[in-house]
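[Solved] Which block belongs to which protein?

Original post:
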Amino acid sequence: MNCRIAEGMVNKYINHTLSVNDLEEFLEHIENCSSCYDELATYFIVHKAMEQLDEKQEDSVLDFRELLEEDIRKSRRYIRKKKFTGQSQQLRSVP
C-alpha cells in the first residue's frame, strides 16, 4: 500500500468501515509510515474532540493518542478474530 491509498482510507478507518483485508493492510502501512500515522492521529484527534464537544463533556480530559493506540489494538484483535473465525469455518466445511 502506498501513502496516497492509506490517506484515502483514514476516514473509513475512523468510522470502522474498512473490510478486514483493507484494515490489515492499512494498519501494516501506518505502523511503518510515520507520515501516514501522523495523518491518522490528526484526523482521529479531531474526530474524538468533536465527539466530546457533541456530548458536552467539557470537564473530561482525554489522552487522544492513547485512545488511538487503543483503537489500533482493538482493530488488530478484530482482524485476528475474523481470521480465526474464517479458518474455523473452513475446517468445518472439509468432509
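(Second protein starts here: sequence line, then its C-alpha cells.)
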Amino acid sequence: MSFEDALGMWTGRVVEVAEIAKTIDGETRGATLGLIAGHVYTAVWTLRGETIRLISVRRARYGETKVYFEKVRQEGGREDL
C-alpha cells in the first residue's frame, strides 16, 4: 500500500487507540483504526515533538475490526462511513 493510499484512512471516521505499546527506548506508540476501500485498517504511529510519524498501516486484525465497529456504534455513527 502506498503512503497516499494509507492517508485515505483519515478522510472518513477513525477511532484512536492511545498508547498501544512502548519501545525499549521508551517511545510510546498509538494506533488509529479506519476504513480504506471498505476494509478496516490499523495505522501505528508515534509522536516526535509535535510531528506524527507513521510507522505502519496494515489490514486490521479481527479484534481491531471489532473495536472499530463497536466504537462507531457507540458514537451513533453509520458503520459504512
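Accepted answer:
You had them paired correctly. Confirming on the second one: The radius of gyration is 13 Å.
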